[in-house]
Amino acid sequence: MVELKTDTSIDAMHEAGQVVARALTAARQAAGVGVSLKELDEVAHGVLREAGATSPFLGYRPSFAPTPFPAVLCASVNDAIVHGVPDHYRLRDGDLVSLDFGAELGGWVGDSALSFTVGTARAADLRLIETAERALAAGIGAAVVGNRIGDIAHAIGTVCRAAGYGIPDGFGGHGIGRRMHEDPSVPNEGRPGRGMRLRHGMVLAIEPMVIGGGTDGFHAAPDGWTLKTNDGSRAAHAEHTVAITDAGPRILTER
């Protein structure tokens, strides 16, 4: 069932979303050659504590996971697409990093992700990241009252496929509100004019993921959480929490 949020609830979700934005900004600023992924998780955790917020990631255990997620931040590097577990790996020059973060404040949840490079960037990585961001912008642009979920999916998939990139099947965006994952699901590829009609008060986490090698295959790493590309190519991820309103899409996690 899809819960339509009131304007007051959307404002409250914006407050949670701004905690997410601050944490991602802080973690990105802290990232550099020699910095460990655990240190980035600690930075993000510090923002949560300062805001009096909690993490919807920490301890989360969906049906596919062998263990509860052990951190507040997902940190995926190079061929890791999403759900990377922060460990003692220290960032190296040229790494491509994707950070995904959520916060719960006042009973409402925000969720966002970004990708960036550390040190000397490869041109191919910059193009990959730029495409993920363009796909996110296209998806948000389609998130208007009267459109359908398929219009968002089609907008995202069109950008990703036109660039020659792969899209991991079965992973995409979702409704969000009192819980991190709510109905409806928001695929990253689909047919326009299909699916649920968008209404004022719906709030969605829109999150394109792109695989640089152009294939869609992926697998879970031994930790059971991190999803990696089958071809070893790099991946990028971009995400915002977006409210559907009569005035147009409202980005609640804008940095």
TrEMBL record:
Binding locations of substrate: H83, H181
CDD domains given in the database record: MetAP1 (cd01086)
Binding residues for a divalent metal cation 1: D100, D111, E239
Residues in Peptidase M24 domain copies: 12-246
Cofactor comment text: Binds 2 divalent metal cations per subunit. Has a high-affinity and a low affinity metal-binding site. The true nature of the physiological cofactor is under debate. The enzyme is active with cobalt, zinc, manganese or divalent iron ions. Most likely, methionine aminopeptidases function as mononuclear Fe(2+)-metalloproteases under physiological conditions, and the catalytically relevant metal-binding site has been assigned to the histidine-containing high-affinity site.
Catalytic reaction annotation: Release of N-terminal amino acids, preferentially methionine, from peptides and arylamides
Keywords on record: Aminopeptidase, Hydrolase, Metal-binding, Protease
Cofactor needs: Co(2+); Zn(2+); Mn(2+); Fe(2+)
EC number in record: 3.4.11.18
Binding site for a divalent metal cation 2: D111, H174, E207, E239
Highest taxon above the source species: Bacteria
Family membership: Belongs to the peptidase M24A family. Methionine aminopeptidase type 1 subfamily.
NCBIfam families tied to this protein: met_pdase_I (TIGR00500)
Quaternary state and interactors: Monomer.
Protein task: Removes the N-terminal methionine from nascent proteins. The N-terminal methionine is often cleaved when the second residue in the primary sequence is small and uncharged (Met-Ala-, Cys, Gly, Pro, Ser, Thr, or Val). Requires deformylation of the N(alpha)-formylated initiator methionine before it can be hydrolyzed.
PANTHER family: METHIONINE AMINOPEPTIDASE
Descriptive protein name: Methionine aminopeptidase
